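Everyone, carefully examine this protein record:
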Amino acid sequence: MASAWRAFWISRLVAWAAAALGLLVLGTDAFRQVSPSGRDPTDSVAGWLLSPAERWDAGWFVGIASHGYDGPTPSHTAFFPLYPLSMRVVGEVIGSFQWAGVLVSLAAFFVGLYFVHRLTELECGTAAAERTVLLLALFPMAFYFSAIYSESLFLALSAGCLYFARTERWPAAAGCAALAGATRSAGLLLVVPLVIMLWRAPRTGRWQLRNLGVVLAAPAGTLVYLAYIRSATRYGFLAPFKTQQDWMREFRGPIVGFWGGLKNGYQAATEVLWGGHIGGAVSGYRSGLVNFAALAFASIGVVGALRRLPLAYGAYALVAVLFAISYPGNDLQLKSLPRLVLPIFPLFMWLGAVTERRSYRTVALVASVAGLVVFSAMFASGYWIA
């Protein structure tokens, strides 16, 4: 608990301070390009305080929390319901959906760190667990964990699911799996580690019934959401998946996505090295480099997780990464990959396990903090990150 709490408050202090300073240094020109009619975030104390949280996709979550899913287009159905529903419940109490989103994200992030610490402690020891939660909390893209995004809630539910399965509390594991499936489509992938853990668990007389119940729980949350969209809106049962085209993404498979990430990373690197200009609210060069770095980290992390961790964790990391890179943009850009990698906690379990040496740990932490400071500042100022 103490290690999770320390990683939580240190990382949030760094992210929030960097975001506030970022508004001073970088200004709000990028924010103005995206939201020309929006109120300048530097006009009020509340704007300053919300600057690390209320940007880009946060508006979609706030809109769903306020008005539900029956909008003029099906684009918003791509955002699964549990996070905005939690925002609505808290928002009705405190009177602000924006601050409700921040509170939900912060609470879920701490819970997620706690479960990741407990899992890593069980598999790799206490020292590795302490390193893991610190590296996860200070990861360059970890500012999303306190933004009005669903990353923190998904981390808490997916890590909680595997923790309860690891400790053979199967009803709790099934409940977390179902809730994760109502948070993001990637929740469906929890069926993979659950099947592996179930297969390796001691078999009692009720093993088959337990097996069936826990495995079916993983898609239950997603199926309930799809049924709701079909019955309560004018959109079809599969609208949350079909609407990916509205976001200039489509399923092309992991091989195409992997190649696209390599290609765009190479193009971005050559442009920068040979005098390309990086600027504007949305920089193709910056996105290409950042997405390539995320692809490299995820690829190495998957191999490391498969080698250093029990099979369930490595298998989950593998299918989660393959799923994330299977939906490249029209230009084969791996849009949002650094953010999508964040909740894949076995990658960080591996990173915590292999940084026993102080020199490795120092390099990883310095690079992470530097990235977190820079990206937190840019995100608060309105730049598209990842």
